Each structure stands twice: as structure tokens, then as C-alpha cells.
Amino acid sequence: MKEATAAAFLISSAYLPQAFAQQAPSDVDLRAAYCLPIVNQQVAVYQNALSSPGHPLPAQLEQMIKNMAADAQGRADHLKRYLQRRIADLDATALLVDRVIDLAPDGSDAKDRHIST
């Protein structure tokens, strides 16, 4: 009986890492994670332009900025929804490493960098 229990434990232990294995992020996942803070910054800039005291904006310009803010907020919401669905399946280490690489001041274009796992 002990041998059967030990064998069952060893067999289940062999499959356990595969049950919790996470996918490497795709290029789309990496791009979404990279773009989200940028789009959030755009939203903040537009909202700041609308709320700056002492500088009234012409009605047409104010409406244009509101439209751009709404578009940017829509893009941010779309990216958040996408990432929320994907984040449970992704290897977060690869996302963090890619973010650190994007922050490195090496002069290369972020979209040209890929991480192979």
C-alpha cells in the first residue's frame, strides 16, 4: 500500500508543474503591457489640460480635448480588459523583464526587442 501511495504521489508530482505552467507573453501581450502606462499618461495630460485653472479654453478646443480624452480612456480600458483576461495565464517574470529592457537607455526601439523563453 505504501508503494502504491508513493507511486501515485510521484506520478502526480511529475504532472503538477505542467498544471501550473504559464505561457510566455506574446508580442501582443507585451505591447499591451507597454502601451497601458503611456495611454494612461495621455488621459492624464488631456484631463490636466481641461482642468487647468485660470486658462479658459475656447469651446471648440475644449470639446476636441474632451473627445481626445474619451478616446484615450477607451483605449486604456480596452488594454486593461485584455490584460486582465490574459494576466492569469502569463509568466509575469517575462513581462517584468521586458519592461526593464524597455526602460534601459540603450537607444534601441522597444518594438524591436523580443524575449525568447
What string, H for helix and E for strand, traces the elements in order? HHHH
- SS strand fraction: under 5%
Taking Cα atoms only, what radius of gyration do you get, to the nearest Å? 23 Å
Low-confidence stretches: 113-117
The tally of domains stands at: 1
Instruction: Quote the distance from N terminus to C terminus.
Output: 41 Å
Level of helix content? Answer: over 70%
> How many strands?
0
Q: Mind describing the biggest β-sheet?
A: none
| Number of discrete helical segments | 4
Inertia-based shape:
rod-shaped
Regarding quaternary structure, what we see is single chain
Q: Can you give the mean pLDDT?
A: 76
Broad structural category: mainly alpha
